[in-house]
Amino acid sequence: MTPQRIEPTPFQSRVLSIPEDHFLFLGGGRGGGKSFGLQLLILRHCNQYGARARVLVTRRRLKSLQQFGEELRALLRGAYGSGVAYNLNDNIFRLPNGATIQLTHCESSSALTDTVQGMTFSLIVVDEAGEGPGLDVIDQLSLTLRAKGLPLRMILAGNPGGANHSALAERYVTGRLPWAPFEFGGNTWVYAPSTVDDNQHLPEAYRKNFEVLRVTDPALFAAHRYGDWSAIVGDYFAGVWRPGRAVFDHHEVPPECFATLRVGIDWGSAAPCAVVLGGQLAEDVRLSDDRVMPRRAWVIYDEHFEHDPLNIARGTGRTPGQIAPAIHAMCTRNGVRARGVIDSAAEARTAGRQESSISDLFREAGVRVTPARKGPRVPRMERLKELMAAGDFWVASRCRLWLTTVPSLPRDPRLPEDVDTSANDHALDATSYLIAGASTGRATQGTFARKAPPMPDTGDRIIYV
Predict the structure, then answer these.
(1) Does residue 248 sit in the same domain as residue 146?
(2) What is the value of pTM for the model shown?
(3) So what's the pLDDT on residue 439?
(4) Looking at the 3D structure of the chain, how many domains does it have?
(5) CA-to-CA distance for 403 and 413, rounded, in angstroms?
(6) How far is CA 19 from CA 43, 197, 331, 458, in A?
């Protein structure tokens, strides 16, 4: 069989030139040649290391993984001929030189345990990383990189958008120079972006397809056409969130401009704990660029986002008593006391026991919280969208994690009226609790004894026994 000649694009050639001990994030627009670039990296790895090469390829969805497998099979057979064996049951390619390539779809930690726990790999490729699996699963995948005697490497590829958008942008894009190595999690990474202009193999008609988005959704056009991770607005807030109108510098609006400033807390231990400080303006405020923040507008003025330094989608496991000093510090720098609302679920105690609730622990640490008037979730979200659309909702530019996570939240595919709760929606929930306000009061526990009836006022002192 005549060997197949492969001509990589300039983008793919540049990716192939990056040292093998550097981890990669191929994060660009659609049609940039990322998937075929991954296949070329896999093929080169197997050629170089032969029987020692153990490759894992994962996507979240089985059907898209099967499509990737078909494209990879064509490439491998073009390089090795009929000597390529494929086990359909195990989804494993075995090459004539002894290298193996395993394909698996991982949607959760349990799926990961069932498929790759205890196995060893030299190269791990996660395609469509924006769609999943979650970064906690991807981090666990990296623990299987332990083959001896050759460079170990993880490669992620994905477009802007999806449930992992904010986490990927925070880790690998925001503040990173394209093609410049940076350190993260003890490894050297390279952010390698691409656009459809980098792929000369695509027809011109494909490029023209983006023009519809230019009119219908300019932010999505910038994200998919040019790989702009800062432009995309999640499906849920599309059309109502406009950062150019709603983001301001907190130095221009002193705390004295607010009728009240309170905290809203979405408690999390394994998940992030999000605390926002906000309130309503007491008077109209004109900014230096002549934008006007109207009286009674809701403003998210400051934040504390308790998360794993390596993963903004994971909590730290710290207790309310350990988090409280950071909340006090946030409130002190804004001249207010630490008081506000918290998820009403934080009031719960263990059934049949008098253990302190999460809210009790915050109160013991000096953060005076009452349960939020939550009500149904969807009306809270719709209320926030109404405020955004009317220009009555603003966010200070220092609220970096709020601006990183909330605007990019997608819809729940099963309930389009709601946010996809599998995404990083903790700052959004804290905001919705703050706007919903406190409930009527804290629940109290009493005895079953009947209250004494009121006694008539006879003018005499009466002692009721």
Answers:
(1) no
(2) 0.65
(3) 66
(4) 2
(5) 23
(6) 16, 25, 47, 95
